[in-house]
């Protein structure tokens, strides 16, 4: 999901966030979980000649303030794409913050359309520090696919209870199995996710 809006955090807060932020490598080095999945996704994402040309044609690097955690499946799925764009084009500069506990104020400034904060949240700033827009969580197409994958999971396991419930309401065994199934499906949509995210970025940057 991407949106555009006027600046929502002050210049001082933005500058402090940039100073405290991690690079992608620092984020990975400090990660406690999913390191292999991060590395695998980073290696598997490839940029087409057209995509490389677009980013390299941007006149200035774009600062991207990121709220993330290593345990989040959406972070695992798409933060490596942003990192790949950063490494191969130099036109995105990632500033990664852990949302909890110290950056809830930033999270509260960039809410999803459902009124809650979600990770990852990517906020784009130009060279002058002006906010250009944001991308939250994952593309709508992937949200639709996740709904489909969940239905497939429940159809495969009619013996388990919990269809339609939130993850937090599921028994631990069922929750682990569902997450494992979703983690197996997500890489199959990697190219679709990449294309949709780059389209979102282009809509923000112009």
In round numbers, the mean pLDDT is 95
Uncertain parts: none
Beta percentage is 5-15%
Distance between the termini: 16 Å
Shape: globular
Total number of β-strand segments? 5
Q: What structural class do you assign from the helix and strand content? A: alpha+beta
* Cα Rg: 17 Å
**Largest β sheet strand count, sense and barrel closure:** 5 strands, mixed
Enumerate how many helices there are, as a single number: 9
What is the N-to-C succession of helices and strands? EHHHHEHEHEEHHH
Blueprint of the fold:
Elements: E1 2-3, H1 11-20, H2 24-30, H3 35-44, H4 49-56, E2 62-68, H5 73-89, E3 92-98, H6 104-109, E4 121-125, E5 131-136, H7 140-156, H8 172-185, H9 190-205
Parallel strand pairs: 2-3
Antiparallel strand pairs: 1-5, 2-4, 4-5
Fold and architecture overview:
This protein is α+β, with helices and mostly antiparallel strands. It is 51% helix and 13% strand. It contains 9 helices and 5 strands, in the order E-H-H-H-H-E-H-E-H-E-E-H-H-H. The chain has a 5-stranded mixed beta sheet with strand order 1-5-4-2-3, with helices on both faces. Helix 3 packs across helix 5.
Task: Supply database-style keywords.
206 residues; 13% strand; five-stranded mixed sheet; 51% helix; alpha+beta
Task: Summarize the structure in short.
It contains 9 helices and 5 strands; from the N terminus they run E-H-H-H-H-E-H-E-H-E-E-H-H-H.
